[in-house]
Automatic annotation (TrEMBL):
It is found in: Membrane. The chain crosses the membrane at residues 42-67, 87-107, 127-145, 165-184, 191-210, 230-250. It is a multi-pass membrane protein. This is Aquaporin-like protein. GO terms for cellular component: plasma membrane. Keywords: Membrane, Transmembrane, Transmembrane helix, Transport. Residues 1-32 are annotated as: Disordered. Belongs to the MIP/aquaporin (TC 1.A.8) family. Its main location: membrane. GO terms for molecular function: water channel activity.
């Protein structure tokens, strides 16, 4: 067969096998974390730390100012059975506005959770960031402002540990439900802040208004732990679980096809 016919046959028979240089299969390569994913997680950690620190430091400062006012009356009724409503409003406002501002700032950075009781994804390193930030914020306010640190969450003498536990769970469930049910948008930080504001109004006199393990853990590390400190972990976790369950049921019923 001539070279011309051979070449013609090869060009006219596209089905002839053609072998490419072999390449290793994808699964044979070692697994690597994409650089962009690592940067995303580092950014989330930094965002949670800075956001939690700023949120709690501002709220702690407002609480410290209210409680250490020269005309001080015990918020928990130790010296006067009647609550000092003006101080309670001051503290609740400080917490609510601080949360609203920092959620607006850090929502696009880390999701702006600032609360270990709400974590599902990225649980390990964001919880570490929040707890360390809570300690740092308490230590910062203790060093920055004069007077003893009086921002620790404690129960009023008139409420039992069990009631305190369920009050913390109830107000936390309201806060978490507001976060889950509201669509993301420019107004969401305001509504989240308002939900914390009303939750603080309903709980700060009796329990100190924790709603957040990081909020209670930080000051406790600085000034000492109470024997019932565990309620500030279990209560918010129970409340977050109830809110998540209610949200799941609502979404299931809403999107269920008949």
């Amino acid at each position: 067969m001539s070279a011309e016919r051979l070449n013609s046959k090869e060009t006219n028979e596209p089905g002839l096998p053609f072998h490419e240089p072999s390449t290793p299969l994808p699964h044979s390569e070692p697994l690597k974390v994409p650089p962009h994913a690592l940067r995303t997680e580092i950014t989330a950690f930094i965002g949670e730390f800075v956001g939690t620190f700023m949120f709690l430091a501002l709220a702690f400062a407002g609480t410290q100012i209210a409680v250490n006012d020269p005309g001080y009356q015990s918020l928990s009724g130790d010296n006067d059975p009647a609550p000092d409503v003006s101080k309670l409003l001051y503290i609740a406002f400080a917490f609510g506005v601080s949360l609203a501002i920092n959620v607006a700032i850090f929502a696009d950075v880390s999701g702006a959770k600032f609360n270990p009781a709400r974590r599902v994804m990225r649980m390990a390193h964001t919880i570490v960031a929040q707890m360390v930030a809570g300690i740092a914020a308490a230590g910062f306010i203790a060093a920055l402002l004069p007077g003893p640190l009086t921002i620790a969450t404690t129960l009023a003498p008139t409420i039992s540990v069990t009631r305190g536990l369920f009050l913390e769970a109830f107000v936390t469930s309201m806060l978490v439900l507001a976060i889950l049910m509201l669509d993301a948008g420019p107004s969401k930080p305001m509504y989240v802040g308002l939900s914390l504001f009303v939750a603080e109004l309903c709980s700060v006199f009796y329990t100190g208004g924790s709603l957040n393990p990081a909020r209670s853990f930080g000051p406790a590390v600085v000034v000492g732990f109470t024997g019932y400190h565990w309620i500030y972990w279990l209560g918010p976790l129970l409340g977050a679980g109830v809110a998540s369950g209610a949200y799941w049921v609502i979404e299931f019923v809403r999107h269920e096809r008949v």
